Amino acid sequence: MEVCQGDVLQRVQASPTGRLDETTTLQCFRQLARAVRFLHQHGIAHRDFFLDNVLLQDKSVCKLCDFGLSVSANRVCSDIVGKAYYMAPEVVAESTYDPTAADMWSLGIMLTGSPLTQFALPHKCELTLKMLFGLA
Length: 136
Description:
- The protein is an alpha+beta fold.
- It has a single domain (about 5-135), classed as Transferase(Phosphotransferase) domain 1 (Transferase(Phosphotransferase), domain 1, Orthogonal Bundle), CATH 1.10.510.10.
- It is built from 5 helices and 5 strands; from the N terminus they run E-H-H-E-E-E-E-H-H-H.
- The protein has helices at about 10-15, 20-40, 90, 100-110, 125-135; strands spanning about 5, 45, 55-60, 60-65, 70.
- The strands form 2 sheets. The chain has a 3-stranded antiparallel beta sheet.
- A hairpin with a 2-residue loop joins strand 3 and strand 4.
- The chain is globular.
């Protein structure tokens, strides 16, 4: 078993800027994208992407963890799982969905709307999520 120093969120919180530097962010995101592709190619959908599920092995190696909500990538899902901020619209809408497509949405949110980056989506706050989706 490999030893990881903590999750990405801990590293972000420890940073003076509250963000990872651009090089680390791109390295981490590239590794996560490869991990998602690997999972999907091997018939697995993760369904729980968020920063706490990304571990740091060292300064530049990210590892995806917590496969407790994983399902077959070929399965049609209808249950609401994951963290509200990272959920794809079809998951929140309580309709059937492709879990691999939902994984890709969550991965995109990790890049564009999380503390990993300088960008933020306008609906990040819990109150707005509650108003939009009845969540939070």
